[in-house]
Amino acid sequence: MFENAKEIILKADAILISAGAGMGVDSGLPDFRGRDGFWRAYPMAKELGLSFEELANPRWFKDDPNLAWKFYGHRLLLYRDTTPHDGFYKLLELANSKKYGYFVFTSNVDGQFQKAGFDSDKIVEVHGSIHHLQCVNRCCDDIWSAKNENLNSHPKCPKCNSLARPNILMFGDWEWIENRTHYQYQKLNQWLYDIDKANLAILEFGAGHSVPTVRMFSEDIARRKNAKLIRVNPRDSDVPNGAISLSLKAKEAIDVICK
Asked: Residue 205 in contact with residue 20, Cβ under 8 Å?
């Protein structure tokens, strides 16, 4: 399988990278897999008996802002302080070597691809980004950077002074402002149109079944573009016909296929 994967990558002149939570695990980031895994990362949630899906809900910003920002503030600081693993840089070098370049599609909100040097104009963050904020009351459709927020107090909307929240698509979320992600999609679709005749390879990392957004996207593009899909996942490694499965962690697979 490794040799087949290497041959596909070698022959490709465009690379589409799709990534779920497993992409960041080798950087030391939690993947929130299962209630026990989430509770190990956030003992406060265990004390309250809350799963990730229950805590990652916009209602907490109105019902209990302190709890909401304790959770998301910790995540924001964690992602700010985390250094992407070497696999990100090897992947970027590979992607930049291709005639028609690359694009990234990720469900991760951590900004690790940008931190590793990937072009922000070549990334779709399908669930938004923790590094951007919006108004809880959606007084406007503005989205702004969280870069200068020190989190000693709860971030506020600059327009109405109401509480702010991360510009992340949460569970049961009807208030997420999707303008930024929509704009990213437009750029991705234009790139896919421009490379219509290219030999496209899809490299998918750490995207499981629990939230199948990335897996479904990868398989859809593979069908539409007659592209080869290489799926890297140590657990959910099943693939459709014609795709390649590598039952490895992301960094481990990148170390092998990027030699």
From this structure: yes
